Inverse folding.
């Protein structure tokens, strides 16, 4: 079977990998380059225990409090656009306990094989930098710490029980850089993190070795249908015929899906980050600064800081918001980043594909069984990329939707 995968990010590459392993003849088309979007610009975390959807109880009130801050973790810029307004209205409707717990349960079910699949990629010869050191969550609010500890109890009921709450003394013993404003934390020893560039480049290299054609600067501009109404080819500079098509174009997946006569509600959620090549401190584990929603990831050659969420903005960099990540970090970690250590580090940004309910979209387009969509993974794109590839392979080659994918269907 010939399959066209649209998108060469972490999701698209894993879909191509699973399809090729199952015997398909695969071609990847990307409008830019391998991992050109958020697949390179993220924390690199592999974190099943952080599977909760973005829309969560209490987020509406918190968002209102943040509106007065130019450097707040969340920014929503209103736009006179019906699609955007409808998206935000639906997201607000999903900020309740029932939807959150249902989404958490469904995503955790996907994550049951996450570590196993990452290990399988490495065993199969995909080279990427990987760390199994776990992470610490740091809190400046006793109330927030207690609330998150209660979420962990929910995880424990669902079979995930690998975290420990730390008081201030125990937290500082583990993270000596923690400031006096940090009141405690949570140790998540089982979580992992990988270096995103090495991951997408490693996958692309192995795929190329196995005969998968990866075409960059190939923006899909239209589709061609047969007499039966099914898609037979896509147009991306030239005609690309295939038996099946996978839309894994990240934040652009809504636009691409519309060409296939499908409606997929996706909005870009922009995040920022910095890479500090000569860090003034090293960390045994990754750190999550909970209230500030900033992630610190210690790679082999640098520490990456990432965070924030912006809706309704373009890809440009707002220096005030980017610098807010550094300012937040200094309130959690005494003297870090050190003065002068960020002078040669420029902020970067990445557009995450967001859905109104915070869950990925993984499934065939209604009425078009040979077109499968895989997008909307928000901050879990790296974590869920291998299992998404497995699901998509089953949907394309076997024309079946695995039971664990039911919650992520396009028309939910």
């Amino acid at each position: 079977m010939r399959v066209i995968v649209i998108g060469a990010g972490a999701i698209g590459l894993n879909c191509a990998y699973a399809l090729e392993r199952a015997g398909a003849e695969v071609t990847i088309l990307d409008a830019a380059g391998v991992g050109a979007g958020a697949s390179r610009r993220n924390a690199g975390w592999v974190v099943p225990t952080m599977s909760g959807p973005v829309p969560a109880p209490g987020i509406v009130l918190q968002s209102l409090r943040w509106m007065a801050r130019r450097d707040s973790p969340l920014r929503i810029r209103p736009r006179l656009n019906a699609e955007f307004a409808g998206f935000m209205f639906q997201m607000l409707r999903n900020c309740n306990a029932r939807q959150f717990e249902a989404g958490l349960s469904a995503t955790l079910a996907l994550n049951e094989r996450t570590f196993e699949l990452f290990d399988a990629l490495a065993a199969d010869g995909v080279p990427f930098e990987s760390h199994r050191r776990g992470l610490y969550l740091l809190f400046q609010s006793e109330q927030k710490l207690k609330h998150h500890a209660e979420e962990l109890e929910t995880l424990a009921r669902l079979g995930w029980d690998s975290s420990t709450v730390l008081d201030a003394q125990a937290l500082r013993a583990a993270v000596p850089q923690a400031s006096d404003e940090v009141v405690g934390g949570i140790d998540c020893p089982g979580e992992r993190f990988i270096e995103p560039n090495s991951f997408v480049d490693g996958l692309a290299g192995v795929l190329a070795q196995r005969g998968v054609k990866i075409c960059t600067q190939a923006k899909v501009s239209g589709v061609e249908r047969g007499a039966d109404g099914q898609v037979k080819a896509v147009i991306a500079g030239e005609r690309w015929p295939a038996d099946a098509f996978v839309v894994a174009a990240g934040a652009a997946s809504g636009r691409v899906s519309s060409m296939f006569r499908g409606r997929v509600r996706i909005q870009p959620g922009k995040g920022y980050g910095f890479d500090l090549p000569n860090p003034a401190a090293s960390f045994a584990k990754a750190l999550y600064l909970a209230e500030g929603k900033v992630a610190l990831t210690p790679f082999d050659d640098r520490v990456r800081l990432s965070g924030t969420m912006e809706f309704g903005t373009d890809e440009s960099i707002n220096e005030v918001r980017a610098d807010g990540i550094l300012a937040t970090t200094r309130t959690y970690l005494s003297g870090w980043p050190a003065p002068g250590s960020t002078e040669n580090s420029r902020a970067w940004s990445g557009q995450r594909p967001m859905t109104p309910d915070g869950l990925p979209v993984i499934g065939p387009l209604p009425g078009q069984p040979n077109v499968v969509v895989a997008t909307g993974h928000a901050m879990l794109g790296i974590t869920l990329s291998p299992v998404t590839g497995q699901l998509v392979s089953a949907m394309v080659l076997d024309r079946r939707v695995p039971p664990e994918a039911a919650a992520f269907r396009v028309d939910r």
In short: The longest helix spans residues 381-397. The two ends are 28 Å apart (CA to CA). The chain has a mean pLDDT of 93. DSSP finds eleven helices and 21 strands in the chain.
